[in-house]
């Protein structure tokens, strides 16, 4: 088990660390909570990384990713900019009346990176 492995400090190394932990958990006979206790992280952290890595894999594969609007006021949606954050690395802000075709081209280009 991974108990002797040092945790990475950031970036792709951190994602790789949690990807490996999640692979080990999937292969083990332990629940997420039991496994988390064994390796010294919280189950919430492992669940969060599992969700983040799954979303990242969807983006890399060119799949659609679900977007949830959190603002309940229709008027606020029309005035506030739309902010897209991808994998905590890329942030795109769109003002009201943005060019949808330009956004589509931008997203196509970013999906190749």
From TrEMBL:
GO MF entries: DNA binding; transposase activity
GO biological process: DNA transposition
Coiled-coil features, chain-numbered ranges: none
TM segment ranges: none
Descriptive protein name: Transposase
Source species of the chain: Engelhardtia mirabilis
